[in-house]
User: Which sequence fits this backbone?
């Protein structure tokens, strides 16, 4: 029977509502399986800006470092939109990713059988279902590369360009290798298909990605490897989403493609994520949906993405597979029983529940 310290960052918008309920779900798992989860609540994002004047207080980062895993709701909101780039709530996320060394972002995009009507694609395009694991590099590339402003020089006709802003995409072999290994390892436990998404027809950094993928792939002879340019990948995602298994890609391409993949499952309110660093270090788990300020505090938010993120935490950080299954099966049962939050109520024969009632149904299904 284990005992685990969980750093909890409720954050802004609907973050606190979905995270409170998720902690209750974890308590139910603890009761059933005889574990102890200790929750330490921490400030980050807009609420930290309001309380202590900065998005990621040092105390938050150090508490996260000491924890066994971090559970985060969401950060940001219109209230803080006018702050300069380096003081925005989103800086908390980047600071946590960098500060905890979370280089591997796992974003599963799954079309739940019970939610097939939520998929915006025509049935004929999703006959094989959708079960994609996006493996996004999270601590490198253009998000963290050299950036700034400088004088822009002139056009060939001599007219001045004015000031210029630049951001840099740079990847080292070691950074690429560690994320690629995560992808191949995951593929071994899945359908053994890796797609590497890049822009190797233009970008030198992408050409290095291909070299590294080629090298690593020789260690995984059972795994098939394909390379797609990112523009083509975004097209294939809506044409043959069922053909994808594991998709490995850079920070920026992964940001964009994971939203697209999320959308084709029809329910951003259902999507969990895990951000992992070196083995044995705390991972961070968060729903993909963000703060949804328009419905914050209204008990309308779908708690299932946060609850499924907690399941990922149990599976990946604590190696509690049975317990993770218990949460995922409970979510499946609640959906099969016809319960929906408004965001996933695509037909009128469902029972619509608020955040609290939906959470309670999941807890009931675990017990
Ligand atoms: C995400 C978000 C973040 C990102 C933002 C909020 C910084 O879009 O987690 O996908 O771009 O990584
Ligand atoms: Mg994003």
Assistant:
């Amino acid at each position: 029977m284990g005992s685990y310290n969980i750093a909890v960052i409720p954050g802004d918008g609907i973050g606190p509502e979905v995270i409170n309920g998720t902690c209750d779900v974890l308590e139910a798992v603890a009761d059933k399986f005889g574990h102890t989860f200790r929750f330490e609540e921490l400030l980050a994002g807009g609420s930290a800006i309001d309380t202590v004047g900065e998005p990621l207080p040092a105390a938050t980062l150090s508490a996260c470092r000491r924890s066994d895993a971090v559970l985060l709701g969401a950060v940001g909101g219109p209230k803080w939109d006018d702050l300069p780039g380096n003081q925005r709530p989103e800086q908390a996320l980047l600071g946590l990713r960098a500060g905890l060394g979370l280089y591997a972002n796992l974003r599963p995009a799954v079309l739940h059988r019970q939610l097939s009507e939520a998929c915006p694609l025509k049935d004929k395009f999703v006959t094989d279902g959708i079960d994609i694991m996006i493996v996004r590099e999270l601590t490198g590339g253009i998000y963290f590369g050299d950036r700034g402003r400088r004088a822009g020089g002139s056009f060939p006709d001599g007219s001045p360009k004015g000031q210029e802003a630049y951001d840099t995409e740079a990847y080292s072999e070691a950074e690429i290798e560690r994320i690629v290994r995560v992808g191949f390892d995951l593929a071994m436990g899945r359908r053994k298909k890796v797609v590497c998404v890049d822009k190797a027809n233009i970008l030198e950094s992408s050409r290095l990605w291909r070299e590294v993928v080629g090298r690593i792939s020789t260690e995984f002879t059972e795994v098939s490897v394909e390379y797609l340019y990112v523009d083509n990948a975004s097209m294939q995602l809506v044409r043959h989403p069922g053909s994808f298994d594991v998709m490995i890609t850079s920070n920026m391409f992964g940001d964009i493609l994971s939203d697209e993949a999320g959308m084709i499952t029809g329910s951003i309110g259902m999507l969990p994520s895990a951000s992992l660093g070196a083995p044995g270090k705390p991972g961070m788990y968060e729903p993909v949906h963000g703060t949804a300020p328009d419905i914050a505090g209204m008990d309308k938010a779908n708690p299932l993405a946060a609850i499924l993120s907690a399941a990922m935490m149990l599976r990946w950080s604590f190696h509690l597979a049975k317990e993770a299954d218990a949460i995922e099966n409970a979510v499946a049962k609640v959906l099969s029983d016809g319960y929906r939050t408004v965001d996933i109520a695509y037909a009128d024969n469902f029972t619509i529940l608020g955040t609290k009632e939906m959470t309670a149904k999941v807890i009931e299904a675990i017990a």
Notes: Residues 90, 93, 255 surround 3-isopropylmalic acid (ligand 1) (CB under 6 Å). The longest helix spans residues 15-33. The first strand starts at residue 3 and ends at 11.
